[in-house]
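Q: Sequence in, structure out?
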Amino acid sequence: MAWRRLTRGATRALALMAGVTTGAAKADLPGDAEAGKDLYAVCSACHQVGVNARDRVGPHLNGIFGCRAAAHEGYRYSASMERAGTDGLVWTFETLDAYIENPRALVSRTRMSFRGMHDPEDRVNLLAYLQKYSDSAANAHEAQPKAQPVADDLDPAILDIEGDAEYGEYLATECLTCHKADGSADGIPSITRWPEEAFVIVMHEYKNKVRPNPVMQMMAGRLTNEEIAALAAYFSTLR
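A: Exactly. Output:
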């Protein structure tokens, strides 16, 4: 199976997987959605939610409750997440609670590098906030604006640059001294199969010192816009 070394939350999740329904997944949660909104800042580096939310490093989270894992059309998931969905993993309160507590305990080789949210009350509050965007398609548009600080002021011409994947492979040698081509993420986030636009935005956030990692700021600062686009094209094609 795609999940191993299960936490208690993951064990509960697997027990519910076989018979869960969308209606059950959307039962009102007891958490504090306002507190969950603040906690969502941890997620917002990779996931958007709310009005006009789009896929970035991770898929957007509108309508997540009741959906089968890896079912969001147009987003390229890891092989492990795709297997989990094929095996029957559905995102309910229980399964999301287990995943947020320890992502790799539920989906062993997920590309999500988040180390987990260990406080049960925090997880309930976060899920109560996310549920606001799953109650109905209408609510997803009436809810608060997207909660991700992305480079909205980035020149659209930069995003329009068509990257040369072969050149990106040549440039990627230095990247691959830390990041793994197979998508594994043992302490270093995976960048394999990232959407190209997300890759470009993140690299420019490092380049402009929006993101704080000094090593990545240095690396991104040495790259031209064309080189960033080439790396984005290369890493998006890796399997």
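The chain is about 45% helix and 0% strand.
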